[in-house]
Write a structure and sequence with these properties.
10 helices; globular; alpha+beta; Butyryl-CoA Dehydrogenase, subunit A, domain 3; Butyryl-CoA Dehydrogenase, subunit A, domain 2; 3 domains; three-stranded mixed beta sheet; binds flavin-adenine dinucleotide; single chain; Butyryl-Coa Dehydrogenase, subunit A, domain 1; four-stranded antiparallel beta sheet
Length: 375
């Protein structure tokens, strides 16, 4: 297996970081970065080795997303949602799904994403309104999914639906982007992560073969909590730790370089030193918390779930705090596009509102530590 982190750092430095400002300004999909990750085999990070992938873990994912987000939040988010889709397929792949999806993913030829959210269900993505209706040996899907990152750039989507019979629970289906009746619309208008192309998906009588079911009917809820939740939460925690680190490094560099007429730098002012200390501590604690939670998840520690949930709370809150401090350090210049700090600040605001949101996670963590049932 190649040194995943070294490979990611090289791509981040050579391809991703140099395009970050342009992708943000033009609000365009980070095609170059995603293709470079594909050529390096990193789109197959969570594909098992026997299917040609790197066989990485959620700890590798969190480390990779942290590096990518420091370079470009949009690229990191697109990569993360692809990895979440990959993790779902990898968890229960049939031999046919392995050939049709996992091997091409490992070769960098297919990009995936999750189509979970619906306007009506909001942050409670585990309670979809769409149902998989049986018809002539196929599933038929009707409805609308919102916030589908990668959007029309994805080749396949993991769609969560109610199963054909309500008592079965939830299904997860692999839907090819070109399926008749599946159509993306709208443009991403969020304040940050401008290139993540998170748009709406319309499903009008989309017919999906039985072979596109992940696992068995009713396996959806288990896949959400055992596969999607740890993968997404640790990956997005890595993203937020990376955004915080990027903003801190930019603010530090600016504080050292910006000189007043008397020759003093910003970094020599005590108030700025206090901010730098705050940011340094926040970045390192968030990053360490995420890494520790990921290591626990990989080992299967008894308290892993608690640490995983809290990692997103900590990383997203610290990303908001650090990017705000970075703007304070950089003053008026930080408020303009002349420095990337304003981009980090806008990008960092997404983490806390992405499901499971900070409020929902705090409730779950609070209940867990207090021994109160989650549901
Ligand atoms: C940049 C970005 C990318 C995304 N990418 C994807 C993607 O690829 N795939 C996908 O499926 N989804 C994606 N999402 C959607 C995301 O995960 C959420 O589902 C979506 O943001 C929910 O928005 P909402 O306005 O409906 O929230 P609402 O459900 O209306 O929530 C609004 C507020 O109320 C709080 N709240 C709601 N219920 C409770 C409760 N019971 N207790 C306490 N507080 C509560 C929430 O925490 C939040 O602060 C993305 C979102 C963003 C911002």
């Amino acid at each position: 297996m190649p040194d995943i982190l070294e490979l990611t750092k090289r791509i981040a430095n050579e391809t991703v970081a140099p395009l970050a400002a342009e992708i943000d300004r033009e609000r365009r999909f980070p095609r170059e970065g995603i293709e470079a990750l594909g050529r390096a085999g990193l789109l197959g990070l969570l594909v098992p080795e026997q299917a040609g992938g790197l066989g990485g873990t959620v700890a590798d994912l969190a480390a990779v997303t942290e590096v990518l987000a420091e370079a470009c939040g949009s690229t990191a988010m697109c990569f993360l949602m692809h990895c979440c889709a990959t993790a779902v397929v990898s968890a229960k792949a049939t031999p046919e799904q392995q050939e049709r999806y996992l091997r091409p993913i490992a070769r960098g030829e297919k990009l995936g994403t999750l189509a979970f959210s619906e306007t009506g269900t909001g942050a409670h993505f585990y309670s979809p309104e769409i149902s998989a209706v049986h018809d002539n040996g196929e599933f038929v899907l009707n409805g609308r999914k919102s916030f589908v990152t990668n959007g029309d750039k994805a080749d396949f989507l993991i769609v969560v639906t109610n199963a054909s019979s309500p008592e079965l629970g939830l299904d997860m289906l692999i839907v090819d982007a070109g399926s008749p009746g599946a159509r993306f619309d709208g443009v991403w208008e969020g304040i940050g992560l401008s290139g993540n192309n998170s748009i709406s998906l319309r499903l009008d009588n989309v017919r999906v073969p039985q072979t596109a079911l992940v696992g068995a009917e009713g396996d959806g809820m288990g896949l959400i909590f055992q596969v999607v939740a740890p993968t997404f939460i640790l990956g997005v925690s890595g993203v937020n730790a990376g955004l915080a680190r990027g903003a801190y490094r930019q603010a530090l560099g600016h504080a050292q370089a910006r000189k007043y007429a008397d020759g003093r730098s910003l970094a020599e002012i005590q108030a700025i030193q206090f901010y730098l200390s705050d940011m340094f501590g926040a970045v390192e604690s968030a990053s360490l918390f995420v890494r520790n939670a990921a290591a626990k998840a990989v080992r299967g520690d008894e308290d892993a779930v608690l640490h995983v949930m809290q990692s997103k709370v900590i990383a997203s809150e610290q990303a908001i705090r650090v990017t705000n401090l970075a703007m304070q350090v950089c003053g008026g210049q930080g408020y303009t596009r002349s420095l990337p700090v304003e981009r980090y600040l806008r990008d960092a605001r997404a983490g806390a509102v992405m499901a499971p949101t900070t409020e929902v996670l705090k409730e779950w963590v609070g209940k867990s530590v207090a021994g109160v049932p989650l549901f």
